[in-house]
Write a structure and sequence with these properties.
291 residues, eight-stranded mixed sheet, alpha/beta
């Protein structure tokens, strides 16, 4: 199989921007695609801000910053992904949308290109079925915030070849990440726990037990978590949380996975989280987490 030198990220939202940092920081030529040019520009601005803060904190050598930014290229033209050896999809959780994207990528990318999805709830086999290259398709679920979290859940679909999975695993390690193999099951490992856990926290708000800041503080202090549930939910976004709930509940019928009414109300109010400046907490800027 061809050596992976150029990695494409499809989707310049919170997750896509974080994954792109991981790739570029590891020395891969990185292309970030999004149909919205403003999303691409924002992702680049956030990336540079995060890296500058990393330099200030002594976690990144100053001379590495321009190297990483030079390796980072943004585009709103899907044809620019034609020279990618690996494309990681990080768009919203919709099977038709993912099928549409991968069918277009299949027409653009060469035969050797591996396709991967960052999905956390949809079957890898189902997504691969609409990709045009199901044998060269793998699940690579990074964790929010990707630029700080090391875990990547690696999931082969029923049709994923052993060679494809092995190469994707090796690339994940080359990025400095910690891959864990999971089966192609709903929500894999992390979100199997996180989605119901987050919904339980939201229901505490609905029941008037405590406010978000106090619940976050209790979880961080009592359980040692680096982020409280509402800090993480604001990063995920209420719109994404709703899609995650619908995907998991639709497959498992787990009552705790059903989307709480408060999430839908917040979406209607435009309180999506950090990206809109207000969710369970309020935000004065759109800096990337860790910047």
């Amino acid at each position: 199989m061809s050596e992976i030198k150029t990695i494409g990220i499809a989707g310049a939202g919170t997750m896509g921007a974080g994954i792109a940092i991981v790739c570029a920081r590891a020395g891969f030529r990185t292309k970030v695609f999004d149909l919205n040019p403003e999303s691409v520009a924002r992702a680049r601005q956030q990336t540079e801000g995060f890296l500058r803060k990393s330099v200030e904190r002594g976690k990144l050598a100053a001379e590495k910053l321009p190297e990483i930014m030079n390796a980072w290229q943004g585009t709103s033209d899907l044809n620019d992904m034609a020279d990618c050896d690996l494309v990681i999809e990080a768009i919203f959780e919709s099977l038709p949308a993912k099928h549409d994207l991968f069918s277009k990528l299949n027409a653009v990318c060469p035969e050797h290109t591996i396709f991967a999805s960052n999905t956390s709830t949809i079957s890898i086999t189902e997504i691969a079925g609409g990709s045009g290259r199901p044998d060269r398709f793998v699940g690579m679920h990074f964790c929010l915030p990707a630029q700080l979290m090391k875990l990547v859940e690696m999931s082969p679909g029923l049709t994923t070849s052993d060679a494809t999975f092995a190469q994707a695993w090796a690339v994940c390690e080359a990025m400095g990440q910690k891959p864990v193999k999971t089966q192609d099951t709903p929500s894999f490992i992390l979100n199997y726990f996180l989605i119901p856990y987050h919904n339980d926290a939201i229901r505490l708000i609905e029941q008037g037990v405590a406010d978000p800041a106090d619940i976050d503080l209790a979880i961080k202090t009592g359980m040692g978590y680096s982020m409280g549930p509402f800090e993480l939910l604001d990063l995920v976004g209420m719109d994404t949380q709703k899609l995650l709930c619908e995907a998991m509940h639709g497959v498992t019928n787990e009552p705790r996975a059903a989307c709480p009414p408060l999430v839908k109300k917040m979406i209607a109010a435009g309180w999506l989280g950090k990206k809109t400046g207000k969710g369970f907490h309020s935000y004065a800027d759109n800096k990337m987490y860790g910047a």
